[in-house]
Design brief:
The protein has 132 residues and is mostly helical. Helices cover 80% and strands 0% of the residues. The protein has five helices and no strands. Helix 1 (4-28) packs antiparallel against helix 4, helix 2 crosses helix 3 and helix 3 (64-96) runs antiparallel to helix 5. The radius of gyration is 15 Å and the shape is elongated.
Amino acid sequence: MVSRQFISFILTGAIAALVNVVSRVGFSKLMHFELAVLMAYAVGMLTAYVLARKFVFLQSRTSVRSSFAAFALVNLFAVLQTWLVSVGLRNWLLPILGILALRDLIAHGIGVAVPVLSSYFGHKYISFRQRP
């Protein structure tokens, strides 16, 4: 059975992912796709942290400073996954498949979704771990 905490993580993560993708569209008007993905990830990560702290990991007694540092560390792994998948799909797989319409949006959307499980467990056991 899926826990209430995991469902809350998915819902708040979906909001943060939407912020991420929408901000990437804006950043893409100012810079190359590859850099826009990284900048948007930072915006989405800040959104995700605030939402996770307030609505998901309610039992955490970790300080804001500690939990944010750990959150950023967990997200280094996640941003690597997001960037590799987004850029790989956009520049390699989608063109091979003949998908050119909305290529950036499709690639980035899938890239943002990929690290959901690793992020959940990383944040549960590292960023917002419950102290005895």
